[in-house]
Design a protein that fits this description.
The chain is mainly alpha-helical. Helices cover about 70% and strands about 0% of the residues. The relative contact order is 0.15.
Amino acid sequence: MQVYDSSVKQLPIINPLKGVWEKRSLLKLLVARDLTVRYKRSVIGIWWSLLNPLFTTAVMFYVFNTVFKAKLPDGQAFLPYLLSGVLTITLFNQGLTMAADSIASGAGVLTKVYVRPEIFAFSATISSAINFLFGLIPLTVVLLIFGKHPGWKTPLLLVFMLCMLLFSTGLGLMLAIAYVNFDDSRSLINIFLLALQYMTPIFYPISAIGPHTQKVINLNPLTSYVTVFRDVFGDNSHATGTQWIVMISTSIVFFFLGFYVFGRTWPKVVAKL
């Protein structure tokens, strides 16, 4: 049995990561719990996770198809372009909010047993990644309908998913502090995510907006994420080397920053759970 000794010096980032790795069997159990409890009383189970992105895609397709279809480069089909964008933003939103909320929801365990709290954030983002994998099924069908299919770049999807997992986990850990300290933070984050959704080229190509707005959109890291995903799965876009660098670098920076900030503030936050 592991005993926590508060007199032992804790190394920022290193000790939390080591603690998560040592409890990887618990991580698997938490992921399984997240998936089973959420759909326990559901008839179709995890397939409910597809309803939100598919419904969102249907509405956006109906509204924006005639506006942006002709503006996609190289005669690309609008529906695969749109669905891949919706799946990306859904993965980010779910991973971020679930990771942020996982600390508060795990208070019953964290206040009684010594467990690295970061493991709850990891389980939340992994669960959202599993939901995302199910979303690839309808996207594949749509690609086939429009004469496309996942190509040789498909294995790079693992790089995209890893980067998104690190990115959302790091941000989620920082937001978890706000969730515990400020009751209004959840409402503010929902507003921020809605604004971020429109600042990400989900239903419109960047070429369809003005040059000044393009600069702002390109500053949004999620622009690189969605472009890379479209490139590696279905070849619906072309990701530049710069966008790959932005995706990888932001995932690493925010992951370690989130662990550092959370580790520094956690001793003060745990008393409020």
